[in-house]
Structure prediction request, 205 residues.
Amino acid sequence: MKKILLIIILIMAIFQINALSTSYTSQYPTQDDDHVKATSKVSTNFWPYFATNPELTLTGDYNLNAWLAANGSVTEQRFHIDLGSAKVIKRIYYENLHDSGSSTNRGAQNFTFQGSNTEASFLELTYGTDTGWTNINTATSVFIQHPDEDIEDPHYITITNTTAYRYYAFKFADNYGNVSYLGVRRVELQTEDATDNAITFGINF
Prediction:
């Protein structure tokens, strides 16, 4: 009996559990007006593609570092991204609008997320025109307001999606109460990469 117990203990002494970890990779569009579009912009200091460019700063002055819709356009703004090829997007990373930690009520709030493989849909920027678009379920439909501090403030939204789309759209319904402007500091679309990691546990006798 003692021998059997010893064998069982030795078998249990070293074992492996395969743990599934999930990582994400940002998929960037070409950073120009042909691949990132919005219903409006306040000026050439706030091109939509400034919000998708990972090379731009997330703190300090938001001029040339964020997208801002035209003056007075504080509701119903489309923001379209052409990834160049169809990809299954599983997560959104964003930093909501701020200007050196101020004007945070200009940040986008409620949104709808959509996907399409139709170029004509991507080029149509009228808020209420959904032809060719499919609504995609997101864990939340709200962008969190940036704190009143000049800091990075990353947020992530997981997506229920198994379809590869080339074109993706945010329909921003409103902001956080500012009467003049609506915008976003950074938006990135991310694919999911699942990797098996072997974790070894041991018991020493």
Q: What stands out?
A: The CA atoms of residues 16 and 121 lie 49 Å apart. The chain has one domain: 25-195. Residues 25-195 form a domain with the Jelly Rolls fold (CATH 2.60.120.260). The chain has two helices and eleven strands.
